[in-house]
Amino acid sequence: MRMAIERTLFIMNNKPLKPAETLDACIEIGVGKANSSIPRLFVLGILAGAFIAFAAQGSNMAAFNLISSPDTFGIGKVLQGALFAPGLVMVILAGGELFTGNVLMLTSLAEKKITAGQLLRNWVIVYLGNLVGSVLIAYLVSVTGQWAGGAALLGGMTVKIAAGKTSLSFGAAFVLGILCNWLVCTAVWMSFAAESFIGKIFGIFLPIWLFVTSGFEHSIANMYYIPAGIFAKGTEAFVQASGLAPDALATLTWSGFFVSNLIPVTLGNIVGGGLFIALAYWFSFKKA
User: Which of the residues in the chain have pLDDT under 70?
Assistant: First the structure.
């Protein structure tokens, strides 16, 4: 009993960092990331991509029947968001390198603790690792037969989600990417501020829940969603279950994945997390 009380008091007294202190922590974390070896960054990038893909698949499995109906669409998105949040929790707490979170390394660049070359080196290696991890999980799930669940409605929703993402205009995908990583980087920022394990989980959970429920675009999550849809598109039962006409599926290709979605969403993610979190806080507590 005494140990439980002492542990509770420790958690209660473990106050979060103030924003200026969080900025200092973020800068130093960015320096460490910039100096990490290529093999380490790539392997941790694969793990992070896999964690996000697991969250995407799990949230789809839980909410596909709700999202399929206009009457329960909003509830489905709420459930989907709640079950997607563990993906970033695993990345931060288990260990992983996630491109969208590493946009916060712009604080280290602004403070002149790292060079532009170091920043781009990290981003490229981690981005490729995220891509490998996400597509790997999409492929492995595709051979399990899981998408046949719910009378093939899960497979149909997998196709429908992917087709919706590749049919976005460049401008819409870009802005949705901004809004997404504004929240994702807020979640990572809050995890830096929290001192306790539970505090980090809550700091991550709420913004991620909000971004998924809102339907914003996350480049790394899309590295699972769209390849999964392309793999599922090869099964006629899933195409029929999606309810989409052939012309609506025309953009669901590998070129559509990279050109129509991944490029604008990635650029939006950089702006959202970089401008509105990393540089905004650096300007507020360092420059200004």
Answer: 1-14
For residue 206, tell me if it sits in a domain: yes
Residue 189 belongs to a domain: yes
Number of folded domains that form the chain: 1
Q: Where are the alpha helices (DSSP H) in the chain?
A: 2-13, 19-34, 38-67, 73-84, 86-94, 99-102, 106-110, 116-142, 153-166, 170-193, 197-214, 219-232, 236-242, 254-255, 263-273, 280-282
CATH code assigned at 116: 1.20.1080.10
The answer as to whether 13 is a domain residue is no
From residue 269, give the alpha-carbon distance in Å to each of 81, 175, 195. Answer: 18, 9, 26
CA atoms within 13 A on the CB side of 93: 21
| Residue 94 CB coordination number (10 Å) | 10
CB 270 within 8 A of CB 176: no
Q: What is the pTM of this model?
A: 0.94
Question: Residue 250 corresponds to which tokens in the numbers above?
Answer: 């025309």
Closest CA to 122 of 143, 145, 103, 141: 103
- pLDDT of the residue at 14: 67
C-alpha to C-alpha distance for 28 and 23, rounded to whole angstroms: 9
Domain with 221, as residue range(s), is 18-287
